[in-house]
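Posted in: Protein Modeling Q&A

I'm a second-year student putting together a small comparison for a lab meeting, and my supervisor asked me to include a predicted structure for DUF4248 domain-containing protein. I've never done this before, so apologies if this is the wrong subforum. The sequence is pasted below exactly as I got it from our records. If anyone can share the structure token output, I'd also love a short note on what stands out.
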Amino acid sequence: MKEDREKKHPLPEDEEEEKWKNRSFSWLELGILYSPTLTPAAASRRLKAWVLANKVLVSLLNTAGWNRQQRIMTPKQVECIVEILGRP
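Accepted answer (user: helix_wrangler)
Welcome! Here is the predicted structure, written out as tokens:
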């Protein structure tokens, strides 16, 4: 019975887990998720500024194969950002 109830009404953390799917993201897409009140271009710039200001994050991204001219981040690179900045 309890299992049936949990399937019909997931707990809040289950809903949050379902909303976030790690995948490839552009800077623009991920920036919008982190700063939804900004224009897409401003959100993208803000995210990139946050990343570049964090030496640990830049190091993790470089290890994951990132370069600054890259427009689309791999799931592994997105994982690095989420690990340091938290989920958007």
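A couple of things worth pointing out for your meeting: The chain has a mean pLDDT of 86. The longest helix spans residues 40-53.
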